[in-house]
Here is the input.
Amino acid sequence: MRSQVVIIGSGPSGLLLGQLLAGAGVETVILDRVSKDYILGRVRAGVLEEGTVKLLEKVGAADRLHREGLPHDGFSLTFDGRAHRIDLFGLTGGSRVMVYGQTEVTHDLMDTREAAGLTTIYEAANVQPHDFDGANPYVTYEKDGVTHRIDCDFIAGCDGFHGVSRKSVPEGARKEFERVYPFGWLGILAEVPPVDHELIYANHPRGFALCSMRSNTRSRYYVQCPLDDKVEDWSDDRFWDEIRRRLPDEVASAMVTGPSFEKSIAPLRSFVTEPMRFGRLFLAGDAAHIVPPTGAKGLNLAASDVYYLSEALIEFYRDKSEAGLDGYSARALSRIWKAVRFSWWMTTMMHRFPDTGDFGQRIQEAELDYLVSSRAASTALAENYVGLPY
Ligand code: RFL
Ligand code: PHB
Here is the structure.
């Protein structure tokens, strides 16, 4: 088989890249290690920047998003028993975010790809990129016990943090930057109305908490937890008691509780690999970088990466120019590092760290107090939260 571009990974970055390229007539095949149902069973991001929404509109995958997504003009920060609203819309001069689950984004992109008759091979085992340092790269994979080969011009590594693409590059050719945080997030989904119509990010001496949602009847809640905690340690009752203790009284008393139907623990990490191009292999999304979820940036960075990459590939096929391909890594990394900084800062300000004690708590409260009382500081937060331009 032959395709102009082979995309490894059928998460949001691979699927969006496939549709952006399809719009310009560039052929792609997508390979994923797992099944479509497995991918759609993963519960992840919930907040989309306007830039991400625009890209989904551009590829014709935003109809349901506009019907079912919840536009949010602000969110609240709580600390020291008080709640403060950050007016995203007012502070940024008219920008907002859209609350719409990653699962739904992925579903819509898969439907768009299928409707266009484009090829995705799920449950492709042992996917391996080859010869990407030369002019004739190819990818091999196994399916039903048979080994297949796809020759191509370029390989897009959109296979997430644990994927094969980044690991195929010799260690000496990449530099990695990493910070692992000493805690995780325990998240639940429950069929209960959200405690507020906007998100609430809570700083509390017992640890961080986040009240988010998937719809007006479905809540997504998180609490910071120790890394060695197991999901089995957390009954629903324990979860509800803990999150209510971390919120101001008026919020806690308004919270509707109920049985959870999903519960998982995610570790928090900041990670960047440089560069994002190795010959004819390009990395995008979580394959190249991870941010802690506090700033809601992971999926949005995946979208800006593949926008840059699609522009570069389209320029190559249309104008026979490699300028965009040569500039891809630096262009993407410049936006990525700003989001890495923002996510690290939000994480540092909002979580309880085991080694900073009560002093650390007071410093966080002072920073939060400054943040909500200074228009300049609130504006910087709002500008980053809605997403820097690209
Ligand atoms: P994905 O989604 O991990 O998809 C990668 C795909 O590659 C496949 N794959 C392979 N295929 C073939 N061969 C191999 N060897 C392969 N190895 C892996 C996988 O099966 C998978 O289908 O990466 P992608 O597309 O780059 O997308 C990135 C986003 O998923 C991620 O950044 C976000 O989920 C992060 N994130 C959030 N981002 C936001 O923008 N806003 C949020 O509100 C937000 N909240 C979150 C989050 C991530 C979380 N967790 C669980 C990590 C909340 C949480 C709790
Ligand atoms: C979510 O709804 O899953 C979510 C929202 C905001 C975040 C992280 C996750 O910062």
User: Anything to note?
Assistant: The chain has two domains: 2-70+98-178+269-347, 181-268+354-386. Residues 8-14, 31-34, 39, 44-47, 102, 127, 158-160, 162-164, 185, 187, 266, 285-286, 293, 296-300, 302 surround RFL (ligand 1) (CB under 6 Å). The mean pLDDT is 97.
